[in-house]
Amino acid sequence: MHYLLMIYDDENMAMSETENQAILAEYEAFTQSIVQSGHFKAADRLRPTSTATTVRVRDGKTFSTDGPFAETREQLGGYYLVEARDLDEAVGIAARIPSAKLGSIEVRPIWAMNA
Amino acid sequence: MAGSCLEEVWRRHAGEALATLIRLTGDFDLAEEGLQEAFAAAAVAWNEAPPANPRAWLIAVGRRRAVDQIRRRIALRARQEVLASEAEIDRQSAPIEPDDDEVAFGDDDLLRLIFTCCHPALGLEAQVALTLRTVCALPTAAVARAFLVAEETMAQRLVRAKAKIRAAAIPYRTPAREVLDERVEGVLAVIYLVFTEAYAGDPRRSLAREAIDLGRRLATLLPGRGPIMGLLSLMLLHEARRPARFDAAGDIVLLEDQDRGLWNRTDIAEGLALVEPALKAESPPSPYAIQAAIAALHDQASSAAATDWRQIVALYSVLMRIHPSPVIELNHAAALAMVDGPLEALQRVDALAARGALAGYDVLPAVRADLLRRLGRAEAAAAAYREALAQTRHEPERRLFLRRIAEMGRMA
Question: Is B182 close to A61, i.e. CB distance below 8 A?
Answer without folding.
Answer: yes
